[in-house]
Amino acid sequence: MACGKLPAPASLPAPTIRSDAGAGLVFEEYDRNGDRLIDYAVVSVMVQADGSQDEYTIAPFPLFYIIDYNYDGYADVSLIDTVGKGRCDDIVLYQDFTVPHEEPKDSRPRATVRGEA
């Protein structure tokens, strides 16, 4: 169960929202400490609206949660909702970027600066 590792929704600032229609994903990115770096993000699936090929809605619960716990500008973990219902028991570790492996630290996903592409 990973919900204890997620920020409380009420504590989050307004997100920067971007989408990748080709991949069918919507990204909500948050700067929780005001340093202009993204340190928390959720990735949701775009769902096609009934009877429309051009209109989409966002799935009610995110698929991925990406967290930079220590605010160093690098993602520390990504969590995945294995069922898609937003239940704590179904949200599990997908990847721990802090575990030593052959790639250098700089290969971890880097936060982007808010307001810059």
Question: How would you sum up this structure, described in words?
Answer:
- The chain is 0% helix and 32% strand.
- It has 117 residues and is mostly beta strands.
- The protein has one domain.
- Strands 1, 2, 3, 4, 5, 6 and 7 form a seven-stranded antiparallel sheet that branches.
Distance between the termini: 34 Å
Shape descriptor: globular
- Could you say which structural class the secondary elements and strand pairing correspond to? mainly beta
What's the total helix number? 0
Give the low-confidence spans.
none
Report Rg.
15 Å
SSE order, as H and E? EEEEEEE
What is the strand content?
25-35%
Profile the largest sheet: 7 strands, antiparallel
Helix content: under 10%
Number of separate domains: 1
Q: Roughly what is the average pLDDT, rounded to an integer?
A: 86
Please count the beta strands (DSSP E, at least 2 residues each): 7
